[in-house]
Amino acid sequence: MLLASCGGGDKNSPGVEYMPDMYRGPAVEAYVDYGQDPYTRSEELAVSQRERPSARQPVAGTIPFSSDPAKAGFNMPYPYPNTVEGYEAAGVSLKDPIAMTEANVEKGKVIFMKFCQACHGERGLGDGPVVNNGNYPAPPAYDGAQLKDLPEGKIFHSITYGKNIAMGAHASQLNKEERWLVTRYVQFLQNGGKMERGPVAAVAPAGN
């Protein structure tokens, strides 16, 4: 108890540690940010710890490796900025690389029900429980005049960055493949719950 109280003025310090090598081994530990270790006892030690190859951020622009070309396309950087111009460009050029099949629509529905249904409603009519409590305005119905012909690129862009004030960005919650699956389900709802849509690309183009 006496040794534990010898921590100086730092309330986060555990105090004097008896045999610290038992739990602070010399080997580099995975996922430990040594540069932020609050228990470092000297600047010299802190410098040596920061040089350890552990918990380092990847180089900017690094993408995951995939031997599947279709999967690799999802890992490419998204080229459209969060601007009006980016939104319009996505609507013209961005195409859903995922086929409109019953299986993919069902996958998209599962994700939609977790992340979108609360506001948009199960059938995309803008009657979700968050809207029904009267605290937020209802979003337009997907099969209504305002959204029925919304291009897939604009749907994906809106899921990525959010739209207006009420809809937040979902890029941190859904990866690109999941966002494209949701896009397919939204198109399914745009089309009144029918599968008839235009042709789709077979492989994800770079940047999708």
What would you say this structure looks like, in words?
With 208 residues, this protein is an all-alpha fold. Helix content is 34%, strand content 0%. The protein has helices at 43-50, 69-74, 84-93, 102-115, 117-120, 129-132, 152-161, 176-190. The chain starts with 42 loop residues before the first helix and ends in an 18-residue tail after the last helix.
Distance between the termini: 59 Å
Name the CATH architecture of the largest domain.
Answer: Orthogonal Bundle
The number of strands is 0
- Report the β-strand fraction as a percent range: under 5%
Give me the CATH fold name of the largest domain: Cytochrome Bc1 Complex, Chain D, domain 2
Largest beta-sheet details: none
- Count of structural domains: 2
Q: Structural class, from helix and strand content?
A: mainly alpha
Share of residues in helices: 25-40%
SSE ordering: HHHHHHHH
Gyration radius, rounded: 25 Å
Which CATH class of the largest domain? Answer: Mainly Alpha
Please supply descriptive tags for the structure shown above.
208 residues; mainly alpha; Cytochrome Bc1 Complex, Chain D, domain 2; 2 domains; 8 helices; elongated; disordered C terminus
Q: Can you describe this structure in just a few lines?
A:
This protein has helices at 43-50, 69-74, 84-93, 102-115, 117-120, 129-132, 152-161, 176-190. The chain is an all-alpha fold and 208 residues long. The radius of gyration is 25 Å and the shape is elongated.
Show the helix and strand layout.
Blueprint: H1 43-50, H2 69-74, H3 84-93, H4 102-115, H5 117-120, H6 129-132, H7 152-161, H8 176-190
